[in-house]
Specification:
ABC transporter involved in vitamin B12 uptake, BtuC, 78% helix, 380 residues, globular, mainly alpha
Amino acid sequence: MHSQKFQQFFSRYKILALLIAIAIIWAFFASMTEGAFLTPRNVSNLLRQMSITGMLASGMVFIIIAGEIDLSVGSLLGLLGGIGAILNVTHNWPILPTVAVVLVVGVLLGAFNGYLATYRRIPSFIVGLGGMLAYRGVLLGVTGGSTIAPVSDSFVVIGQGYLPRVVGDALALVLFVVLAFLTLRQRQSRLKYQLAVVPFWQDIVKIVASGLILLAFIATLDNYGGIPVPVLLLLVVLGVFTYIATQTVFGRRIYAVGSNMEATRLSGVNVNRVKLAIFALMGLMAAFAGLVNTARLAAGSPSAGTNGELDAIAACFIGGTSMRGGSGTVYGALIGALVMASLDNGMSMLDVDAFWQMIVKGVILVFAVWVDVVSGSNRR
């Protein structure tokens, strides 16, 4: 009986449970650091820190939903960030062509991974494992094992800049209006097709709660510089990827491939092409994350992105993406990334030994997958 209630709770309210978990984590670290954890400066740094993992997780969630895995993204992040630093520092390229080339290379390398995993039938785990080693080796080769610095001021803005407060406040207002519109539109759509809907007051509470969270978010960041550019980029990624997942044929095909690949193939969908596109998107996200990481450090580092793939995968599983494929959300993965970043940030502030940080993150990852296993029967 208790097991059934537990399964129902996590199946229906997983995101709510994650938000409660984040509130508990923040309250704990705030009390342990005498409020320093929740200062505007630290919250801004925390969000900037999680934006890199969040970008990787946004691409990884599609990979996992489709029933695949990519272990190369951490090394790919480091390589692409290193390429950006070399073009900008060594060859004195302006920022725009540097960013354009890095993004294109990211898409091509991601598509290459996808080609090997689909058309060549090499298991994606092996492709990713090989890429993890090969891309790290290429990075060490092109950088000579040394840091490439300093990148230009225009490059640094990508990782360290802030939006003007007026612009940030205006964007927050637009985001709130869009959230309210989409919530009411979804309700009208379900009523139109005579589908079950929650009571109207619940939608109103959802809109009001979103507005209050957004208001607190903007007010906190306005007290320390404004909205960081990496956080803005992550919000754009969230909007675009959520739209792809929920409003496009391609998004529905991703879920279909992960749920039942053979049935999807028999229905006429080119499964290989879908998977190739997903890996290309993953490469694009690795490129964005690599650029932000290099800009944040103001340098290209040969060790950049180490264990980045593990954080991204953990964020997806913590955020509710099923290890069996066919189920997951982008916003869930980003909440998972926030959980990981909050733990890293809080434990670092408390000077917790590195080995304890690894143990805690490992235990949480195993717990998240266990929750997925015990709630799997209800999800299906």
